[in-house]
C-alpha cells in the first residue's frame, strides 16, 4: 500500500481587475477605506483517508466578502457543495462531498509579528508603496486586547540589522503617528535578497521571549524566493512547534517564488498556520483590514470534504492536488501531495 503524506497546501483567491489609491503621510483622521475585493484563506488541512487511486481531504476555508470602497467586510456563508467547480482538461476527477459551516468561538487575544519582505522587486509591482495603506489600515482597526509588531527582512539591501530589523522597542497594541511613520519608512527600504527562513528562525526566538499571550503567530508576507543559508525548514518547523508559534503565509506574485510556496506552505501546514494568497493589492488590503478579526477568531469557517481521484487503471502518484473553485467568484488553488 502506498503511504500518503500531505506535506503542503496553498490557497489562492483569484478575482477581478484591481486599482489602489496611493498613500500619503500617515494621518489617522484621514483614513478613507482602501479599495478591496474578496479573499479566501485556508486555516487547516488534513488527509482523511486514501487508497492507491484517491486522497480525501478535510479543508478549513474562510471566505471574506469585501465591498470595493466601503468600510465593511463580512463572511460569505452561503456556500454548499453545488457552488464548487473544477478545472477543464484535468486527467484527475474531483468530488466535494460536504461543506459544513462552523461558526466562530470566543474571541481570543493574540501576539502577532508581521514580517515584511523588503527584498528587491517592489518597483516592479508596488512602485507607489500601496502596501503601506494596508498596514496602516490594520493598525488603525486594531483591538488593544492583542499585540503586534512589524519587522522587515532582507540580505544585502538597506536594513540596518540583517536578516531582520524590528520596528520599535517591542509589541504595540494601538496606532500611533510615530509607529505609522516608522512602518512607512521601513516599507520603503527595499533592496537585496530574501532570506525568508533565516528571518522566521530569528523571529520565533524573539516572539517566544517577548509575547504576553500563548496565541502566537508570525505572518510572513513575501514576494521572492528564499535564499537562506544553513537553515533547514524542518528544523524551523520543530522549533516553532516547541515554542508554540504558528507560521502564517501571505504570498504575492507567485511567478517569482519558484520553490518558495511549496516550502512555506509546508511550514504553515505543519505549525497550524494559515495560507493566504493575494494576487493583487485589492485582496492585500482586504486581508489586512480583516487581519485583527481573523486572528482574534471573529470569523467561522467551512469544513470542506474533498476527494481527488486518479484515472482508472493508474496508481495515485505524488502530483498536484489540482485546483478547484467556487461559482461565487472565490477561487482556490491547492497544491502538491507527497506520497
Task: Describe the model.
The protein folds into 2 domains: 104 residues, no CATH class; 186 residues, von Willebrand factor, type A domain (Rossmann fold, 3-Layer(aba) Sandwich). Helix 2 packs antiparallel against helix 3, helix 2 packs parallel to helix 7 and helix 5 runs parallel beside helix 6. It has 8 helices and 14 strands. The N and C termini lie close together (11 Å). The longest helix has 15 residues. Strands 1, 2, 3, 5, 6, 7, 8, 9, 10, 11 and 12 form an 11-stranded mixed β-sheet that branches. Strands 4-13-14 form a 3-stranded antiparallel β-sheet, with no helix packed on it. The chain is globular and about 60 Å long. The N terminus and C terminus are likely disordered. With 339 residues, the protein is of the alpha/beta class.
Q: Could you name the key traits of this structure?
A:
single chain, 339 residues, alpha/beta, Rossmann fold, 2 domains, 3-stranded antiparallel β-sheet, disordered C terminus
